[in-house]
Amino acid sequence: MHPKESTPFGSTQQITAIFGLMFHKLNRMLWNALMRLAPSIKVIHDQKLTHMRTVEIVRIICEGVVWTNFQKSAQLSGAMLSAAILGIPEVVNEFIMAYDSCSNWSNQDGHTIFDHAVLHRREKVFNLIQGVNFTTFLFSSRDKSGNNILHLAGRLVPSSEVAGAALQMQRELQWFKAVENLVHPFFREATNDLKNTPREVFTKEHKELVKEGEKWMKETASSCSVVAALIITVVFAAAFTVPGGIDGRGVPNFLYEQSFMIFAISDMLALFSSITSVLMFLGILTSRYAEEDFLVSLPRKLIIGLITLFFSIASMMVAFGATVHISLSHKWNLVIIPIALVGCVPVTLFALLQFPLLLDMYSSTYGPGIIIESSWRELTSCHMVAKDNYRKHSYKC
């Protein structure tokens, strides 16, 4: 049917407009009802709307206003650097798309947009900028204190996004490794005005954080290892205390019962998993606690320890339920139902208490991390540009 053809209800254009208006009104009514039921959604909606309007204003300023080079550097650099500090990649992207020279903009300390992204641990801004061609210059620049980008990555930045000293130390190491992967090896041993290399800056800045992380790891491992040791004691004793007794030949009386097989298998699984858990926590307690250990080694041991501890608790409760069922099933056959329900309580409580920590640790260790799409080898002419710039500024290595 042609758009201008008529129908008994009017033209097709009119019908389309009416349905579009009805859909818009219905959508608006649903949003209003949802905002009344959940006021927090309205707050999120208003924040998102403000964010979109801000980005649109920045786009108009960049595209619709003609600025001189002096005005760009004097008036727009502050806005772009603030966006990098606050972690707003959409605003930063508008400046990058509009002005090629924005990589040269810096504040009074000589910090560029890339420096701020690293200093304030803004991952989205960092990933946005590092893919741009002019990053070879940013890697070789230095601030007024003689720090290159790797020196800045070595500074300690307090963060509210990561809970726990060990996780924060891991995140700091991930940032340092990410920036180290981008810079030329020449800059990894370069010194600043205080004659410190980037690694020396990192070690000095994170000395107290390493101690706090070590204390937290040892306290967590000690508490969990006590629980795992108790489980080993219980399930090991249960393996030689056969439910239902044994006959004159030493064969369990309920050997061919399904409940007995469940008991035997779950008891063995509880024993083996709890022993594994104790070994993992023992590895944490005896670790040398070097900086690099917080990157993968210690978190991996804690993850394995918590998972095996949870599995041992669950297996122990299954073995307990099977034992009770063997002892009481001849009188109360339905006793397994309340036993199963009650047995789920400690397992569920442990999962609720430890799952947030386990999830944070797993996502921080095996998640995407600081995404790097290129290394210094893939940045063409990085060596020549950086080395020439360093010689120009009289760097001493």
UniProtKB/TrEMBL annotation:
Q: Which Pfam families does the record associate with it?
A: PGG
- InterPro entries, A to Z: PGG_dom
**PGG domain span:** 214-325
| Gene Ontology cellular-component annotations | membrane
The source's superkingdom equals Eukaryota
Q: Where are the transmembrane segments?
A: 221-240, 260-282, 302-326, 332-353
Report what the protein is called: PGG domain-containing protein
UniProt keywords (A-Z) are: Membrane, Transmembrane, Transmembrane helix
Q: Does the keyword Cell membrane apply?
A: no
